[in-house]
Amino acid sequence: MTSTSGTGKPQIKPGATFDGPSKTLNDSHFLLFSGITGDVHPIHYDVEYAKQTRFGKPLAHGLLLASMTALGATTARDQIDGLVFLEQGCRFIKPAVVGDTIRPRLTLEKIWHEGHRTFYRFTTVMFNQHGDILLEGFHVYRAFEHQKNLPSKETP
Predict the structure, then answer these.
(1) What b/e string do you get for 40-49 counting C-beta neighbours within 10 Å, with b at 16 or more?
(2) Model pTM?
(3) Contacts of 155 by beta carbon, 8 Å cutoff, 6+ apart
């Protein structure tokens, strides 16, 4: 069920918090992300290489963690119709490694208007199984009204 007003904009309010699913990271997450992005730096998969770094073991790709803060994967998914992702930023506080269980949380920080446009800014946080913060950041979305009664595409 979608929670929108007559304007078609989400009815969530600043301070609303949305949790994403927890996920225990494994080698396949790292390899799949590496295959999709082409990021084959050995810090992400080479145990011997990683042992020689200050981290001591392979690390999750930072962009893998950032991607796991997707608003559509959180408990907000049924309340965000009309929001279009515009911008994100984050900083990495601690690394994530194979075996870590991570959990994202997004909080609606503010809603603002620029002329007829409406924007939503969410803070993003990624926790590990110990409650440590791994990532802090933000997402910005623009609200668009749904277009009703669009003509259907006819197939020949």
Answers:
(1) eeebbbeeee
(2) 0.84
(3) none
